[in-house]
Amino acid sequence: MDRVQKELKREQLEEETKSYASTDGVVYSFGELFKEILKQFNQGPGKTSLIPSILVGTTLCSGPISSALVNRFGCQAVTIAGSIISTICILISIKATCIETLMLTVGLGTGIGFGLIYLPAIVSVTCYFEKYRSVATGIGVCGSGFGTVIFAPLLKWCLVKFGLQGCYVMIACVVLTCVFYGILLRPVPSGETKNNNFCSPENVPLTIISPADDDNLYANKPFENTNGNGISNGARRYSIHGTLDLPQSPNLLGKNTNSQFVSQPSLVMKHPHYKSNTSLKSHHSGIMYKKDIFYTGSIKSINNISKSNGYLHAPQIVSTTPIPPKDDGKKYGCLPCSLECKDTIAEMTDFSLFRDVIFVLFILSNFLTSIGYNLPYLYLPNLLEEKNYPEAWSSYMISTIGAGNTAGRIILGYIADNPAVNRLFIYNICLSICGIACFANAFCSGLVQYLVYAFTFGFTTGAYVGLTSVITVDLLGLDKLTNAFGILLLFQGIASFVGPPIAGYLCEQMGTYDSTFYLAGLSIGLSGAMLFIVPTVQRYLENRKMKKNASPLKC
């Protein structure tokens, strides 16, 4: 790797870290603002919590739209647009006179902007790193923890010095810096793609379709993809990771042929749409056509880890740079939409994946985790105030959560890269411990005990944030990562919409903020415990599949 490429990778990593620090630092430190908003507008925690819930929920739910825009316009333009939108909405909040206005500005508007910043921060680094991707993404997302450590005391100081309106100005200035981070984001050089074995079609085996499916393939008829369980994923004409239509050739699909390679001229150079379709990436971004775009682990260890852990859905790499089918359509539904946007939205919102039992279990677990994940960030300052602890403690606790989260992402990410480690087990254990810790928080007394809780919560939730994509690949395979990740973002967003208001309502009914931590402990603990049955379900499905294949065919 030459010096220029190393410099580009370093710049991308720095910009991702700063983007995470700016956006997540604001979101995770919102508890300080929340306490002040409660006092200024004299509203209950149930209604007021709609502001941060809309902020986080919109950020996550906008994932498919952000992905489509990144695929069409690239990370640079989308990040700059998101920063400008967020800054304007935060500045408008200065003149807000009611909670409803803040729901629209701080909640909806800033959430959309943060969504446009959040997703490019992920994919801009995964495009540049392969062998050390887990280390790179681990360092990058640590910006989230650093931002939380810095922003909690900074917001506290601003509130005392300048009041709520002064805090809005400071936050707007910080978010505006993401414009400069976006400017420094670079598109992937063509040479980088060529030299990346995982990102190029070179030496990547294609799955050969059985003769029974040949007619569907060559006739361009809809066909159904099935997962390892034989469960249909629904009929689709194509996906952004679909199978390349191949010309009939007796040499290509011979009886003894197990695999072919895209590097062979008979597969690629003679394809009638090859030249026209591959030009797409040069004209636009096309970045979302990479199947591993959301994968934060080391690419080299995917197959080794899957084999050592014995997962039913071992990742099967068909092609990491599939050629999108030729399509002159410019609409998605009734909306005008480019091919890149249409492909991405269709892939990330394909709900046929719900036919997979393993995915249903995982997304239900993810939903429960997301309900409780934001509650300690939001309600811990109020809990400490309710128990008459010094005001300075709240910023200490939020900063400690940020420090623990940083340590958790690094340490757990490093451990999970070991092929001998069962990553799902680590994920389950961490969430279960996190749930127990949230329950125990109600019985804490004294600074040390609260600091221990804060660090434990931050460290264990590092597994939830850092291992979600790699667990998804372990359970479903790399082919379904983009599809699964899009649906996960949607359900995480929905859970973030409902979690804080439900907790606020419980607080109003029970008269104590301890109830919010009971809810967090129950939802997070249950989300971890329920995934312990996944290996049993996998074995059952595998045995059923083997029995079905072994049964004699009836004439």
UniProtKB/TrEMBL annotation:
PROSITE patterns: MFS (PS50850)
One Pfam family this sequence matches: MFS_1
Cellular compartments per GO CC: membrane
Main location: membrane
TM annotation in the entry: 77-96, 102-123, 135-156, 162-184, 353-373, 393-412, 424-444, 450-473, 485-505, 517-537
Gene3D superfamilies: MFS general substrate transporter like domains
Protein topology in the membrane: Multi-pass membrane protein
Keyword tags: Membrane, Transmembrane, Transmembrane helix
Localization: Membrane
GO molecular function: monocarboxylic acid transmembrane transporter activity
Domain Major facilitator superfamily (MFS) profile per the UniProt entry, residue ranges: 358-555
PANTHER family, per the entry: EG:103B4.3 PROTEIN-RELATED, MONOCARBOXYLATE TRANSPORTER
Protein name from the UniProt record: Major facilitator superfamily (MFS) profile domain-containing protein
Species in which this protein is naturally found: Parthenolecanium corni
